Amino acid sequence: MPRATIRIAAFGDVVGAPGRRVLEKHLPSWRQARAVDLVVVNGENIADGSGVTPPLMDRLLRAGVDVVTSGDHIGRKNQIFPVLQGSPKIVRPANYPDAFPGRGLTFATCEGGVEVGVLNVIGRVFMQGESSCPFKAADEALRACEVRRVKIMVVDFHAEATSEKIAMGWHLDGRVTAVVGTHTHVPTADWRVLPGGTAYITDVGMTGPRGGVIGVKREQAIESLLTQMPTRFETSEEDPWLMGVVIKCSRRMRADSIEQVLMPRPHTDQQDR
User: Fold this and answer.
1) How far apart are CA 70 and CA 192, in angstroms?
2) Count of other CB atoms within 10 angstroms of residue 26
3) I need a labelling partner for 51 at 20 to 30 A (CA). Which of 74, 81, 183, 191 fits?
4) Which residues are within 8 A (CB) of 132 and not within 5 positions of it... i.e. 6 or more apart?
5) 8, pLDDT greater than 90
6) pTM
7) Which of 73, 158, 183, 185 is catalytic?
């Protein structure tokens, strides 16, 4: 029997090996302790900070992730293209050109048999690349969910501008269960359930090293900003955290609550590799 209340966790961009290690180590026990039914993770930065590879995606799934979302770096490792094309476990932005491999909307089933739609869209404000209107893409995905009579839908809006993200939250309020922002790697303090019943947060943050600059070694980021010269960025190893949200829902396309998750890696395992 399905639970009366479904719990969905959404974690922000997993950055490099430090982010992957902290997720692998702590997600399985955390998920069990919190009785989470479905886990969505943005994995587009897991491969040395940019892109996804099939082996690294498999590691996320083995750690307890149900659906991997992505964003503007999903095409950096072309070995992921066949997986994008064939697996329902990973999505790319739905408003990418049709020629781009993969799907932007997928469906996953919780242990209790409840089907959840997971949509990935990318913003256009301050973002590079060619993409169509994310608002129209979300509307189109909603029509597909209505045909399937899906009761829960989570939207990962991968975007830079806070204004564009907030606008998406209001645009979808009352029509989806949750709109969670990713991409900036910095968690925001505006998590809430909007008046129409949609859980919203502008950015869930990153699962990765908070001791760097949005995941990269801070000395390299500072050098780049000071000199304006090309700089090779490497993933920081310092102070990795799990960052995300837990959404509870008991009614169709409505959230009961949203709770922020900001979990530092315990000091006892800081030296684990």
Assistant:
1) 23
2) 18
3) 191
4) 95, 97
5) yes
6) 0.95
7) 73
